[in-house]
Amino acid sequence: MKFVPFALEQWQSEHEQEVAFNLADSGVQPVSVKEMLASEEIERRMREVALHYPVVNGTPRLRELIAGMYKTNPSQVLVTVGAAEANGASVQSMLGPGDEVVAMEPSYRQIWGITQNLGCKYIPFHLDQNNGWKANLDELEAVVTPRTKLICITNPNNPTGMILSEAEMDRIVKIAAKHGTWILADEVYRGTERLTDIETPTFFGQYDRLIAINSLSKAYGLSGLRIGWLVAPVDVVDTIWRRHEYATISAGVLDMFFAEIALAEPMRAQLIARTRRFIREGYSRLEGWIQKHSPLLSIVPPESTALAFVRYHLPIPSTTVAEELRTRASVLVAPGEHFGIEHHLRITHGLKAEYLREALERLGSVFEALASTKTTPAHAQ
């Protein structure tokens, strides 16, 4: 069978361990185990955890904590191995060959790839770079028809950092409701707001045909735990649960132990505050770097996430530029092509100050060299 690889994840998995600086990741400076073991009581409890199979759909306490964030019942929650499994299992349970799906672009292209491999008809609607990456909802309304089985939204958006307004969310729901279309809302960047301390609202509760997805990877700095979840109607949760059993059986028992710690107050609020601090300080450094290299580089300032979708003004493909940066500066960034848009790079900035500063200096030197040369880089030939 023809298979479309996940280009972004392939790029990262092949190179992220061999570079001096990894700015291709999508979260903030990771939290350490020491930070999570905030008291002797927590450490004592961890030492007593039995390393046996855990509850397959998520421990009762963890599902209770997640349900509380959505004001719903734990029976509507399924704990997965990261949001990656939640997205994948959801799409595969709802779509088959020939089915029509409409999705936001640019975006994290996991769903794009899965639908290609399923044989679905994939139709994008776009964020408008010339309008602050605002969603073109007129286009969405035009492409959604009674044949559309699923609308896929990423809010806040990866890679642009755009956040939908409540009015925009309401319009998306009305467009879906007009045709009885399901919505898949990837909300893993809720809590990463750069300009406000108000958490981005969830789509959950605004529409009955909806799956909301989240994880500990982005807003919590705990990507190594590989804990995600979905919240949906009970019958949908049960359907996806059956796929969960085939794919992974369950998340890890220690992963779920730490997830319970992370999502209980006051730890949850502390982790989100930590993430926002890294994002705000990191973006300030990155913005100064972009200004230093203007007009070669420019950006639409992100409203959220530890990501900057930086535009470079050179007639070179983004995969070529990323390869030049990797080989000449030993810095990994994510090419815009992997998000469906050219002449952009996704650069993570929510990292320790010295690490980010040196990585950006290396990137700047290569960019200036690329701008001054009159020859095409070897990787573009």
Number of strands: 14
Rg for CA atoms: 21 Å
Distance between the amino and carboxyl termini: 30 Å
Overall CATH class of the largest domain? Alpha Beta
Write down the secondary-structure element order.
HEHHHEHEHEEHEHEEEHHHEEHEEEH
Strand order of the largest sheet: 2-9-8-7-6-3-4-5
Proportion of beta-strand residues: 15-25%
CATH-defined fold name of the largest domain? Aspartate Aminotransferase, domain 2
CATH architecture of the largest domain: 3-Layer(aba) Sandwich
Number of helices: 13
Biggest beta sheet summary: 8 strands, mixed
CATH superfamily of the largest domain: Type I PLP-dependent aspartate aminotransferase-like (Major domain)
Quaternary state, please? single chain
Integer tally of domains: 2
- Helix proportion range: 40-55%
> Low-confidence runs (pLDDT<50, min 5 residues)?
none
Mean pLDDT: 96
Shape: globular
Based on helices, strands and strand pairing, what is the structural class? alpha/beta
How would you describe this structure to a colleague?
- This protein has 381 residues and is α/β, with parallel strands linked by helices.
- It folds into two domains: 7-32 and 269-370, Alpha-Beta Complex (Aspartate Aminotransferase, domain 1), CATH 3.90.1150.10; 52-264, Type I PLP-dependent aspartate aminotransferase-like (Major domain) (Aspartate Aminotransferase, domain 2, 3-Layer(aba) Sandwich).
- It contains 13 helices and 14 strands.
- The protein has helices at residues 7-15, 33-36, 40-47, 60-70, 82-94, 110-118, 137-143, 166-179, 234-247, 253-263, 267-292, 318-329, 353-372, and strands at 21-22, 77-81, 100-105, 121-128, 134-135, 148-154, 182-186, 210-215, 227-231, 297-298, 307-312, 331-332, 334-335, 344-348.
- The chain has an eight-stranded mixed beta sheet, sandwiched between helices. It has a four-stranded antiparallel beta sheet with strand order 10-11-14-13.
- A hairpin with an 8-residue loop joins strand 13 (334-335) and strand 14 (344-348).
- Helix 4 (60-70) packs parallel to helix 10 (253-263) and helix 5 (82-94) packs across helix 9.
- The radius of gyration is 21 Å and the shape is globular.
